[in-house]
Structures are given as C-alpha cells and as structure tokens.
Amino acid sequence: MIRTMTTILVTLAATALTAGAAHADPRTWLNEGTQVVGTDVLPGLYHTDGPRSNDYGSCFITWLPYLGARDSAATDIQSYDGPSYVRLDAGDVIEVDGCTWVHESYHP
Predict the structure, then answer these.
(1) pLDDT tens digits, residue range 75-88?
(2) Residues paired with residue 17 on neighbouring β-strands, in sequence order
(3) Which of the four pLDDT bands, split at 50, 70 and 90, describes residue 10?
(4) 3-state secondary structure of 73
C-alpha cells in the first residue's frame, strides 16, 4: 500500500512539473544578453533605430559558437551606431548589448 501511494505521488509530481514547463513560442524582439535563434527568438530579419541614450553611441551583437561560450570564443562581433538591420539564422547563438531590436514580423 505504501509503495503504491509513493508511486502515485511521484507520478503526479512528475506530471505537474511537465505541465508547468510548457515552452513559449520564440520572441519577435531581442533581449539584452544571450539567446539562441529559433529557440528564444525567431530567425529572420531584425531592425533597430539605433542606440538608445544609455548605449553610449553604439550597440553590439556577438555571435558565439555555442550556448555557454565566453565572449573570447566569439566567431563574429558587429557594432551598430545608427538605424540597422541584421539577419539571424536558426541555431545562431548571439549576445546582444544595447539597441532595441524587433523582428520584421513584429507589429505592435
């Protein structure tokens, strides 16, 4: 009887955890920090109007070889100082520093 109750409780807990971990759709904007294209954000074309007042005149996107890589392992880095576009491919791992970037499909 105790073993059966333990099994039922463990099964219920696992079901509750799985249900609570529903995956959200990828975003249509880029956050500050690291994100994986196709998982965290949609692949495609992104636009910015340029650096914000607190971006010190530039913003950056750094491409990393894998999630968890250090900046010193970057495969590419681009700086932007005005209105710009960037195309991101599924699987890209990027780190965003500054600017407000929105996907071409974003319509507020």
Answers:
(1) 999 999 999 999 99
(2) none
(3) very low
(4) helix
Cross-strand partners of 47: 85, 102
Question: Which residue in 35, 10, 13, 8 sits closest to 90, CA to CA?
Answer: 35
Single-letter residue type at 26: P
User: How confident is the model over 39-71, as pLDDT tens digits?
Assistant: 999 999 999 999 999 999 999 999 999 999 998
Picking from 62, 51, 42, 50, the residue whose alpha carbon sits closest to that of residue 104 is: 42
Cβ neighbourhood burial of 99 (10 Å; 0-12, 13-18, 19+) = buried
Q: With a cut of 90, say whether residue 23 has pLDDT above it.
A: no
- Taken as a whole, the chain contains a residue count of 108
What counts of helices (H) and strands (E) characterise the chain?
1, 8
DSSP H or E stretch at residue 97? strand 93-97
